Amino acid sequence: MSRFTQRKIRTLTGLLCAMTFSMFVFSYTLREPSLYFFRSVLGLSGRTCSCQHCITHLDDENDSWFMERFNQSFHPLMSRKSSTLPDETYRWWQGLQAEESPSNLTIVLDRLFQLIPAEERYVDAHPDRCRSCSVVGNSGNLRETGYGSFIDSSDFVIRMNQAPTQGFEEDVGYKTTHHLMYPESATDLDNSTSLILIPFKTLDLEWIISALTTGDISKTYVPVKSWIKANKGKVLIYNPSFLKYIYDSWLEGNGRYPSTGFLSLMFAVHICDEVKVFGFGADQDGNWHHYWEDNKLGGAFRQTGVHDGDFEYNITLLLADKHKITLYRGG
Fold this sequence. Notes:
Substrate binds at residues 97, 138, 161, 221, 257, 261, 281, 290, 307. One of its GO terms (cellular component) is Golgi cisterna membrane. Homodimer; disulfide-linked. Homodimer formation occurs in the endoplasmic reticulum. One of its GO terms (molecular function) is beta-D-galactosyl-(1->3)-N-acetyl-beta-D-galactosaminide alpha-2,3- sialyltransferase. This protein is α/β, with parallel strands linked by helices. The chain folds into two domains: 3-49; 87-328, Glycosyl transferase family 29 (sialyltransferase cstii, chain A), CATH 3.90.1480. The chain is built from eleven helices and seven strands. It has helices at residues 3-29, 34-42, 63-67, 87-94, 105-112, 148-152, 169-172, 202-212, 240-250, 260-271, 309-321; strands spanning 132-136, 156-160, 178-181, 194-197, 236-237, 274-278, 326-328. α5 runs parallel beside α8. The radius of gyration is 22 Å and the shape is globular.
């Protein structure tokens, strides 16, 4: 073997070692997937989706803030494959609503996944995909906006808690593909909508089993619906591990745990390519209230001490400022 060939091999080996070490360091410091690292280092311009603006596409210096928080190794939804919680996560999750003597989680989840889909969902990211999503909050700033048809033009329309559409279609749309709720905020859904349960305790998982089958559970820490209308084949479970990741990485421990609105937004950010956000924040007069309420002083929900609404909204504004989402502030 010639000396020139040996030198080329040594040079190539050294380069590969350096790139491997750098990828290792970045994976622990920025927590970004190696794909993004190599794109950044090598100057590749390949897009991560076929939308005009892709959430995960790296194109400017603003992306460092986003990638320090964004971690695709956490998936928003539970499946049978991802149903085991780390001990630290389980202890944190069980402390959110201080459930006494919780049932065995493994047994409960086994029962649950015999009733609802157990496979992984929304792991189909691809450069040829463009999944557009509208996240529709419940703010009174949606009134008299005429956003309805624009909201409904997205592939996914994500709503939350007890938000109605009937009678408000012109402003909020009529389409709902995903509806996030917890037992205390539950509402009936049509057969085409995916119910996404946000469980804050093991009893919440038992509740959804009961609400779809026997109706035995009628109370958690307050009275709840014994039965719920929903398509069992479309019921999904928000992953407590993902919930903790949002609390730690995005909210930095502010509040006791994230609000349904912020969890809905983060769900969209992690499964969609393009996200439009409506109905977040106060109206133009500074009032915090729901769009279906006539009482503009009905924003007492912000004063519960459970969620840090101001911090959550500031993160939402930052996402919009860095062009990761498009925020429509209404009136």
